[in-house]
Amino acid sequence: MTLTFPGETPTLRRAVPATTPWWRDAVVYQVYLRSFADADGDGIGDLAGLRARLDYIAALGVDAIWLNPCYPSPQADHGYDIADYLDIDPAYGDLSTFEALQKEARDRGLRVLMDLVPNHCSIAHPWFVAALAAGPGSPERAKFHFVGGRGWRGNRPPNNWRSVFGGPAWTRVTEPDGKPGQWYLHLFDSTQPDFNWQHPEVADYFDEVLRFWFDRGVEGFRIDVAHGMAKHPTLANWRHPRKYNAHMFNRPEVHAVHRRWRALVDSYRPARELTLVGEIWVPAVAELARYLRPDELRQAFFFDLLTQPWNAAKMRSAIQSGLDNIASTGATVTWVLSNHDVHRTVTRYGQEQPTKTPDPSALIEVTRNRGPVDVQLGTARAGAGILLLLALPGSVYLYQGEELGLPEVLDLPDEVRQDPIWRRSTGTKHGRDGCRVPLPWAAAEPTFGFSLNHAAGGAPAEPWLPQPDWFAGCAVDVQQERPDSMLALYRQALACRRELWAGDAELTWDDRLDRADLLVLTRGSARAVVAFGPDPVELPAELGEIVLASVPMTGRTLPGNAAAWLRS
Ligand code: GLC
User: Fold this and answer.
1) Is the CB of 165 under 6 A from ligand 1?
2) Whose CA is nearest to atom 5 of ligand 1?
3) 22-120+199-493 architecture in CATH?
4) Least packed by Cβ within 10 Å: which of 237, 257, 347, 478?
5) CATH number listed for the domain at residues 506-567
6) DSSP string, 363-398
């Protein structure tokens, strides 16, 4: 990579401005805590490990971190099955470690966002334990969806809804008298019972949860399955059981929950500008925009870039549709190319690119294709992709390890796989473990430096998912030394973004190079050129001075599968 930007070294101690709507153009780094850094040497990442590595995140030049769920949980879906919303899982630390983390993050100019999981809890949550014990018809069961089965003796699920992870969305319980009894609804794993959001205590409970953490300094939440809380009032069968189920997702009633939370968030103004960012999978961007109406969420992930192949026309049309649909709400677009649920970018872009438009009910499936991977090509495209993403107006969420250009670990042995998708699909879908393998920090250390405690003399336990040998080549300490590494590109790009692309300046497409495999976009005096095909492109002087490129450039020739930033 050419590092022609004179650049500022990101300062480690930036002040956090108190009132600006910081989220509108923020870059947020997603920390999958379990796999980030392990301070106590048990093979599982923890808050102390994160504290020890905060300087690394600050030096990347991001504005905030989003922590995947770190509440007490049996970890059946790695924290998305919560047993207690008002505490920290002992495997990760405790409330005082969390407080220390927040302070240290704040000292480095980093805000902390948590993950709110309101659609479902864990079967270990006290409400669910009480509901099981209390039996059919009890007030305890009313907080969930407990229903009698169909068919002879109720031995068939109440309706035809399917779990997102495979199999029916219902599980039958054994009643306190030892007999098979009612069924409960779970849109995901059977360990994740869905709350009944028509019950007033559920809504009150989540108000308390939000306030509990906001009052401890948390600056926002990513909201898990934010389109899922409301269900069809009669739990009626869905006409296409294997298609997008509009009886369980994206119901009109769900917007009332978002309005309620928005009022709660706004009650902290003007002193604090808190954000809520929704994880919302809907078949059309216009639907997504409905969640961003002025009295609802402040942000919602725009997943359409993540589901596009590496193709100029498709990316352009997805970007434009995001801008057109979301701008009218007054919100900015929240761009993402990766997260803990999809295959890593290098792998997606190093595979044969799908040509068919994905079925809206299987959008996430296209992000988890298997098949041969050209890692070098995928890496080049991922570098170009991040320059495209960071040039767009709005906020960007980055998943840990993307800055190292980690490929997906596709060949984990079956016996170590932990994702409930693997089990519920009876081994037909590999699921998401391959993007969750613990990070490599130091090429020559045991566990590649993921576990820190061996320095104190102890031998670290094996990481919770095994790291392949080739992780050594991607380790932070190796990349830190190389000006042409993905890490160097991320650092340069993030530092440069503050100067070049800050603010809401409008995006226009520049078609003067007239090539179908190129995207050229302009915002203010800055310009980005992305070459999606294999052919190089000569950048005419009138496009401006080259500030940064994703690969080394000779003169003004941008190679194929690469991107450059320019300024006039
Ligand atoms: C969201 C999370 C995913 C989790 C699921 C159930 O999609 O991102 O990791 O498994 O919700 O909570």
Assistant:
1) no
2) 80
3) Alpha-Beta Barrel (3.20)
4) 237
5) 2.60.40.1180
6) TGGGGG--S---HHHHHHHHHHHHHHHHTSSEEEEE
